[in-house]
Design brief:
It contains 27 helices and 16 strands. It is α/β, with parallel strands linked by helices. A seven-stranded mixed beta sheet has the order 3-2-1-4-5-7-6, with helices on both faces. A seven-stranded mixed beta sheet has the order 11-10-9-12-13-16-15, sandwiched between helices. The chain has a two-stranded antiparallel ribbon with strand order 8-14. A hairpin with a 2-residue loop joins strand 6 (about 295-305) and strand 7 (about 310-315). The protein starts with 12 loop residues before the first helix and ends in a 23-residue tail after the last helix.
């Protein structure tokens, strides 16, 4: 599966050039810029960015180029009209903002809080992709809708509806006697939906605000169909087990009775000549397997394009027992033995990391204990954190806060002993200097203490800081520094035993890939000694800044910090004996698209000396009832299987706690690293007569010196329109 945005990998020179031409047109109103942009898009759309913004941006170029009469016809469908005006109002402010930031004509400001702008960009990205008037061109939307089988009078919940692309199609299909519930979490989308419903007098659509806790429908509401498009990959990989169980239970409650249907549309991994979907995708077998345990039986499936599938489930009773495990499984096969996801990409940080009321109480006691110099409150907070950390936040900040409370309560000699290690002293100085000002600031905003305690609130109520007063990016950076360089991380991780298992020797050259604040980098620095060398690589310059400052201040000669890239370790050929990755490979597995992953693994092979080792430490996905690691996780079998494909053989493994494992790999001596491929190559350049016609018309235009229209006409999405024969 793949989650997340490619950003620099999906912004090609051609895409940026076409976007720049659109900006030039907005400034100079010269139609030649539109012609050039359209020609670029016609060449790019068959070869890259499947399902991305190109078809939408080309539609806008064609709209600008059209006559007033043609424009009026293009805007005759209300949803298309709203698409255009959302982007074109205020002198195309939204469109200019999107193009400038998306294509890096304007960069986010360094050392400033960009939270609001990034939220706006997420909305604009979704809006342009989802409400694209030419979406049919890549998705075959109509065929998909036919298979859903909605009829007059039915009730349907469009869960994760975004800005309503399917919502309002469903509204037409179910008619006045039916009902559509548009369920969404994003406040920008919710605002757009409400305005659209009001402006167009739509009576059979109800906008519903949802959350991680469920699809948002009132308990008394029942529907015939729950529909989810491009959402379940997030439910699968980004939700905790408890959140997912509550979310699925809300779907069952809304469906009400067995036989009603859950329809999931999502994106598939494709290989070979077909373009991959530009964004997230998930193997459909993972969804089918997981939902079986929740009482959803696959009734039918359809796939009209290689990149997009439709799964139709009927609700049944959840199974009373697990299916039997086969005596033998084919190689690299994973048996799904519970509803637990085999991967989890939940980022540690402020976003989606609300505390229970018990945790908030401890945070408040600690904050008040520090500000009031009240030792009793600090002791009470310590006891609370000590009780809670094994239950709800393994690997997060509770154990680090416990260390800092002990430090605050200690005398001078005890503090000296606690900070004898210079790395620990540096960390403690950051949090404890100036009367613990940084620590108090962290507690105040991270625990959202400006909100008054609610004694009647459920113990499971979550709060989330909005980033309005203290920059969210800085708070996340502080959170990572606090937990990753935590001197007490051994409480949950058994760090000393894990380091012994790794067996790093004096004089060794080792690379700490994704080193973060440098916790393991420093351990390795002491283990390899003066004759060894540690390369500390990190794509996050902010995280590496702590280590850089530490190395410089303490004149440490055997650590080399390196800023690197997702597709390259940044290491020279044959430069290291060991490559170590802690809490990083899950990101390679989940967020790197295939050609990025290929390049990254090739660079690992290149950097390792003959017979070198690759050590992967990561967070396990725990079974039901076992407290999980608070952040991301992955089944070790997935890593072992994938790395065998990339020429690494498992040599040894370690696991003393359910939440953490370590794997040692050696290079397969017979493995040959493939030559890197250009992702733009080997893609289909068009299909049949369509590509031939476009090629001929381009040639004619150049030869005749005329601006002849070519390619597909913009679809109007009207109920009677069918432009299959527009050429």
């Amino acid at each position: 599966m793949h989650l997340g945005s490619l950003d620099s990998f999906d912004i090609t020179a051609g895409g940026k050039k076409a976007a720049g031409l659109m900006l030039k047109y907005l400034k100079k109103k010269d139609p030649d810029y539109l012609e050039q942009a359209i020609e670029i898009y016609e060449q790019l759309i068959p070869t890259e960015n499947f399902g991305g913004e190109y078809t939408a941006l080309e539609w806008i170029c064609r709209f600008w180029r059209s006559t007033e009469e043609a424009q009026e016809k293009m805007l005759s469908v209300p949803l298309v009209y709203s698409f255009w005006h959302e982007l074109s109002d205020n002198d195309c402010d939204n469109l200019k903002t999107y193009i400038n930031y998306k294509y890096h004509f304007i960069e986010y400001k360094k050392n400033e809080d960009n939270t609001a702008m990034k939220a706006r960009m997420r909305y604009l990205e979704d809006f342009i992709l989802f409400n694209n008037p030419d979406r049919e061109r890549w998705e075959d939307t109509r065929h998909n809708l036919e298979k859903v089988g909605l009829r007059e009078g039915m009730r349907v919940a469009d869960v994760g509806c975004g800005p309503g692309y399917f919502t309002f199609k469903f509204s037409d299909l179910v008619g006045e006697s039916g009902r559509v519930y548009a369920s969404e979490t994003n406040p920008h989308h919710l605002s757009f939906l409400r305005k659209y419903v009001k402006a167009n007098g739509i009576k059979n659509v109800e906008v519903v605000e949802s959350s991680f806790n469920g699809i948002g429908l009132p308990e008394e509401i029942r529907v015939d169909v729950v529909y989810m498009c491009s959402l379940y990959h997030n439910v699968y990989a980004a939700f905790t087990d408890a959140e997912r169980e509550e979310f699925v239970e809300s779907i069952r409650r809304a469906l009400g009775k067995n036989g009603n249907r859950l329809v999931i549309v999502d994106n598939d991994l494709v290989t070979g000549e077909d373009l991959p979907y530009h964004g997230p995708y998930i193997n459909k077998d993972l969804i089918v397997s997981q939902l079986w345990y929740y009482g959803f039986e696959l009734e039918n499936s359809f796939q009209f394009t290689p990149q997009r599938y439709v799964l139709v489930f009927k609700m049944t009773d959840p199974p009373a027992v697990k299916p039997p495990v086969p005596e033998s499984l084919p190689g690299n096969t994973l048996f799904i033995d519970s509803p637990v996801s085999v991967v989890r990409y939940r980022i540690i940080g402020t976003s989606n990391s609300g505390y229970t009321c018990r945790g908030k109480k401890c945070g408040r006691l600690m904050y008040e204990g520090l500000t009031e110099k009240n030792r009793q409150k600090l002791k009470e907070a310590y006891r609370g954190f000590k009780k809670l950390w094994p239950q709800e936040r393994i690997g997060d900040d509770y154990t680090a806060l416990m260390w800092l409370i002990r430090f605050r309560l200690s005398n001078r000699d005890m503090r000296a002993a606690m900070t004898e290690d210079i790395f620990t002293k540096d960390w403690a100085d950051f949090w404890c200097s100036g009367h613990f000002e940084n620590l108090k600031t962290y507690l105040y905003y991270k625990f959202d203490l400006e909100r008054p305690d609610d004694p009647d609130a459920s113990i499971d109520v979550n709060y989330e800081y909005t980033g309005t007063e203290f920059p969210m990016a800085r708070l996340n950076k502080w959170n990572e520094y606090l937990i990753f360089n935590n001197p007490d991380r051994g409480l949950w991780e058994h760090t000393e035993n894990m380091m012994r298992f790794c067996g790093v020797k004096p004089g060794e050259r080792i690379a700490d890939i994704g080193c973060g604040g440098g916790y393991f980098t420093w351990q390795f620095s002491k283990m390899v000694g003066e004759n060894g060398l540690v390369y500390a690589t990190e794509i996050n310059e902010g995280a590496l800044s702590y280590l850089k400052e530490f190395v410089k201040k303490n004149r440490i000669s055997n650590i080399r910090p390196i800023i690197t890239k997702m597709n390259d370790t940044g290491l020279k050929e044959g430069s290291v004996d060991t490559i170590y990755m802690c809490s990083a490979y899950h990101a390679v597995y989940i967020t790197d698209i295939e050609f990025v992953k290929d390049a990254f693994l090739a660079s690992i092979h290149k950097a390792l000396r003959k017979g070198g080792r690759l050590i992967i430490v990561d967070n396990a996905v725990t079974e039901p009832g076992v407290p999980p690691y608070y952040g991301p996780g992955i089944r070790p079998e997935l890593i072992i299987s994938q790395l065998s494909h990339y020429g690494f053989r498992l040599e040894d493994r370690w696991q003393e706690v359910p939440q953490r494992f370590a794997l040692i790999f050696r290079e397969d001596p017979d493995y040959v690293v493939p030559a890197p491929e250009d992702p733009a190559k080997n893609k289909k350049k068009g299909k049949g007569y369509q590509h031939e016609a476009e090629h001929i018309l381009r040639s004619l235009r150049k030869e005749l010196g005329r601006k002849l229209p070519f390619g597909r006409k913009a679809r109007h999405e009207g109920p009677e329109d069918d432009h299959r024969n527009d050429y």
